[in-house]
Amino acid sequence: MSQGNATNTTIRSFIVKKFPAARKRAIDDTLPLLESGIVDSMGVLDVVTFLEQSFKIRVSDDELTPDNFANIARMTSFVEKKCGQSGVFVE
Amino acid sequence: MSVAIRPLSLVDDRQELLDLLKRNLGGSQERRWEWRHTANPAGPAWSWCVYDQNTKATVGMASLFPRRMLLDGKVMIGGQVGDFVIDATHRSLGPAVLLQRATFQPVDTGKIPFCYDCPPHDAGMSTFLRLGMRPNCEVVRYALLLRGDQFIEKRLGKRVWTKPAVAASNLFLKMRRANRPMPGLEISTFDSRFDDEFSRLDESLSSSGAIRSSRSATVLNWRYRDDPMGNDALPNGSTGRYRYLVARRAGELVAFVVFFIQTDAIASIVDLFGRDLSDAGTSLLEAVIEVCRRENVNSVHGFCSSESELKPLFERVGFRPRERAVRVVAHAKQTDAASNLLNGGLRWIFGQVEILV
Q1: Alpha-carbon gap, residue B316 to B339, rounded angstroms
Q2: Are A24 and A36 in contact (CB under 8 A)?
């Protein structure tokens, strides 16, 4: 499995495990998680904390935007970019 | 989308601020602008905006309004966050956290010793959780039903057989036994400007070990008498006007109540303050209820924190606790005396006046 796929799988597993609404429907990588009500404003905090701990990255305030957190694809891309910057690789 | 923060000038950026407020809150924001942002006796507000770095468009703002407060009996100018709006296109945690951090600047740079915000919902609270902050207190809404009309019609609809149910419920609600007024206590309406006797009452109640807002004559006149919308609307958009009752013993002011009767038959206790509140406060609340009955008000609402002395008063006259209205989250520099006070077990005796911006 490539690093990108592993990141995607890790994030998806967390979303499905953490948010009950995500288990009730099929979620693809581009489904808007906030607009669809799967993740609420408090849930975003859980996602951010999870990403920071799991991928050893630091998310700054100005990065907390839909550009980076709207869906699983964007989260994956964001984490990949951050890990690339910091040189951290997580299996 | 990349966003950044900049401070706003209350003069140069006035129109931009008003446009943002109107876009997000609606209503006539101009009418209260000078009163709220520049005529506040505690000082002018600080405002910040969050803007899109690509388009340079302003997409959100927040203000910090100075407030004269008493912390453990000491008068301090604190700040209360308000005007917190973000355009729907940019409404997410990032811009909100940036704005929230900006509102701490006057505290962090030593201009004021502390500030607080009153997020009414989880979305508002999420910015504080991100910043590692927890609520200092919660303010709960209390309600007393005086007429069943709206309550029953809302649940059963306007049908023929609803009328007898409404009549029966109103008869039942009228049967509530009022507490007798205390001997020697005189309750009357108050229609003048607040004067020194109110300042003296405020000073005589040191509120040791507690945090509350000041009730000096200057503050009261600004907040109620000088509010350009005080006689027709509240910040939440409801229309109506402020009313005032005072309690005197042998001619001396011992307590007062400010309440707001909306045109949609809902009343709110905005402030109830004074000494001997277990007697004078109860009598003032009974008087408010009497006025509201005469004016066919459906329900009266009150707001207080769990440590407020209003809580037992509300319960004594029949108010029942409803939902949490807001959480109060305060910020102070870790090294300052205010921080020690805020984190050192002060009683937060907050009512609606402390959460109104």
Answers
A1: 35
A2: no
Contact A34 B129 (CB under 8 A): no
Which residue from B115, B81, B121 is spatially nearest to B99, judged by alpha carbons? Answer: B81
**Residue B128, min C-alpha distance to chain A (Å):** 11
Dump pLDDT digits (tens) for B299-324.
999 999 999 999 999 999 999 999 99
Q: Which residues of A touch B102 (CB under 8 A)?
A: none
pLDDT value of position B180:
67
A83 touches chain B (CB under 8 A): no
What predicted TM-score, i.e. pTM, was given to this entire model?
0.88
Chain B partners within 8 Å of A81 (Cβ): none
Sign of CA dihedral B155, B161, B163, B169: negative
Residue B76 CA: distances (Å) to CA of B47, B65, B70, B135, B301: 20, 13, 6, 21, 29
Residue B1: the pLDDT is 64
Q: Whole-angstrom Cα distance, residue B261 to residue B243?
A: 8
CA distances from B172 to A42, A56, B282 (A): 43, 64, 22
CATH of A3-86, one of 1.10.10.10, 1.10.1200.10, 3.40.50.10490, 3.30.70.260: 1.10.1200.10
Residues of B in contact with A66 (CB under 8 A): 1, 92
In chain A, what are the domain boundaries? Answer: 3-86
